[in-house]
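Q: What residues go here?
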């Protein structure tokens, strides 16, 4: 009898030791790395863990998290052995009786959606099992394994059997996981189905019976841990969500052409992740985890003679169509690396203090802005402005005009060390001399050593371009004719100070050997023979006008019509 008691006690202690203790913690977003499309969200929970195995349930996560990106880490003397996403459907709360089936029907609709999702999960699980069964059957039916090749040596057969043993062990282990998952899905499907049937029965009884109050699903991340002794620690989780983004926006402020430009960087952040971000430390990144990160592969192409059109059959058309290359999804996880299942030290480190300024870190593929202030971004899909940085930068102010396209002069600010600003292409609002001038677009993709920013029009400078009477001359000794074109550009300065302005126009070019163009006069312009650009740097005193004259002639066959004049 004593032996029976001892054995029973041992069995009870083993069962108790192996039983998982589940503890639930509420958590909010502590940090977010927001990409141009998508975001990496970070949660944390201070935990108290008993000795043995425990399931730490963290609630308050986004329902739209990417489960493949889910990772966990921690601080404390424990080991993380698993992390997964879970949806909990709480029991309904009984409300005051009402003679209506409306709430039952709403609940039934929610459970119908859950049953539909459950069907997809069961089908996916069945597909996994089918795949492993096929691989297992192929291995077992291999002729080498069956010994059907008489010439096979004993060593070859031994190697084949060793390979079969290893592969079958791996496949059987995966099949065991699939069967456990199928069993869990089946139980959950039965539970949801039974509850749906109960609601249907209640909906059919429109009487004085109490009605259940619909409860929202609870989205959880379950972190399985194990420890030898009871410990205190912290568990951190992070995951990627696609429905968040940010776009840059700028403000350019200058008092006059002799002052510095106040360059203000801002960001418009929006998210619909299903959870509010309250007092969140943010990093804005120019990376995009949604993009395919595989390098492009060039393929050979061949030149051939042009073939006249002919009607071909559908089969020939399909054969001639190029095959499309497939692309995969490679998420950027640099902000969430090194979160594997490892044992963490008991030496807990303190968080560092935020810097007084936004820190812009330029990586090989992106720029990250670490914001020193905490922001709250609700899950409403609206744009919420976040301040990134503000700097006073030196600029060279110049005026520019292209009277062929526009008679106004534009004030241009040229910035030389613009690469140090770590800016992205985006819209900018311009303020000059205390007034809002307008909007422009900063395109750093086409900038060289100097970034030219347009600060708007200056109505105190008038630039007019006039075409004088065209001269035409037919040559007697040949079948050609010559047309001479002359233009004048007048710059009028109505300002109280001397103004320096670059005036640009385009002279024609020829890519036809029968069309000859000869430049007669450019009036001191800097002329580019390759592009046809002519630039005059004009210095105009207050209330003074200066005139530019240029001309060219075009020689071509008289029986041809010339276009572009």
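A:
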């Amino acid at each position: 009898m004593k032996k029976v008691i001892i054995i029973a006690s041992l069995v009870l202690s083993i069962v108790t030791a192996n039983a998982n203790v589940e503890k639930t913690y509420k958590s909010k977003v502590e940090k977010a790395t927001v990409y141009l499309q998508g975001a990496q969200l970070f949660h944390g929970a201070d935990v108290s863990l008993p000795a043995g195995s425990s399931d730490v349930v963290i609630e308050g996560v986004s329902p739209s998290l990417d489960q493949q990106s889910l990772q966990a880490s921690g601080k404390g003397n424990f080991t993380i052995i698993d992390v997964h996403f879970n949806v909990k459907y709480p029991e309904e709360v009984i409300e005051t009786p009402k003679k209506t089936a409306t709430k039952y029907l709403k609940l039934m609709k929610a459970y119908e959606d859950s049953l539909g999702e459950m069907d997809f999960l069961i089908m996916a699980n069945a597909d996994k099992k089918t795949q492993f069964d096929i691989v297992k059957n192929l291995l077992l039916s291999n002729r080498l394994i069956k010994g059907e090749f008489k010439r096979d040596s004993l060593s070859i057969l031994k190697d084949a059997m060793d390979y079969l043993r290893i592969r079958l062990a791996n496949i059987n282990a995966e099949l065991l996981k699939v069967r456990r998952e199928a069993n869990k899905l089946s139980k959950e499907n039965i539970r949801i189905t039974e509850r749906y049937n109960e609601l249907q029965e209640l909906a059919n009884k429109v009487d004085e019976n109490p009605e259940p109050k619909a409860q929202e699903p609870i989205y959880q991340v379950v972190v399985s841990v194990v420890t030898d002794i009871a410990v205190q620690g912290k568990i951190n989780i992070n995951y990627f969500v696609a429905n968040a983004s940010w776009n840059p926006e700028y403000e350019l402020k200058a008092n006059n052409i002799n002052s510095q430009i106040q360059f203000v960087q801002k960001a418009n952040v929006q998210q619909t992740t299903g959870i509010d971000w309250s007092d969140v430390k943010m990093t804005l990144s120019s990376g995009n985890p949604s993009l395919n990160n595989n390098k492009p592969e060039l393929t050979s192409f061949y030149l051939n003679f042009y073939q006249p059109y002919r009607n071909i059959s559908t089969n020939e058309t399909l054969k001639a169509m190029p095959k499309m290359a497939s692309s995969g999804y490679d998420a950027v996880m640099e902000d969430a690396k090194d979160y594997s299942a490892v044992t963490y030290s008991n030496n807990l480190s303190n968080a560092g203090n935020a810097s007084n300024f936004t820190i812009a870190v330029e990586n090989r593929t992106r720029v990250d802005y670490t914001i020193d202030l905490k922001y709250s971004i609700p899950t409403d899909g609206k744009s919420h402005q976040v301040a990134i940085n503000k700097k006073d930068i030196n600029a060279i102010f110049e005026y520019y005009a292209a009277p062929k396209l526009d008679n106004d002069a534009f004030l241009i600010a040229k910035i030389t060390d613009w690469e140090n600003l770590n800016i992205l292409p985006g819209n900018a609002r311009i303020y000059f001399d205390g007034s809002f001038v307008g909007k422009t677009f900063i395109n750093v993709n086409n900038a060289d050593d100097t970034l030219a920013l347009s600060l708007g029009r200056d109505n105190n400078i008038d630039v007019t371009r006039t075409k004088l009477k065209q001269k035409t001359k037919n040559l007697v000794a040949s079948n050609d004719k010559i047309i001479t074109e002359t233009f004048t550009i007048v710059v009028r300065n109505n300002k109280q100070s001397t103004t320096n302005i670059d005036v640009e126009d385009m002279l024609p070019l020829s890519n036809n050997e029968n069309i000859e163009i000869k430049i007669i006069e450019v009036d001191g312009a800097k002329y580019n023979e390759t592009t046809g650009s002519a630039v005059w740097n004009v210095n105009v005193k207050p209330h003074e006008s200066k005139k530019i004259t240029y001309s060219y002639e075009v020689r071509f066959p008289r029986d041809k019509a010339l276009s572009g004049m």
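A: Context that may help when evaluating the design: Confidence is low (pLDDT under 50) at residues 1-18, 310-357. Residues 154-204 form the longest helix (51 residues).
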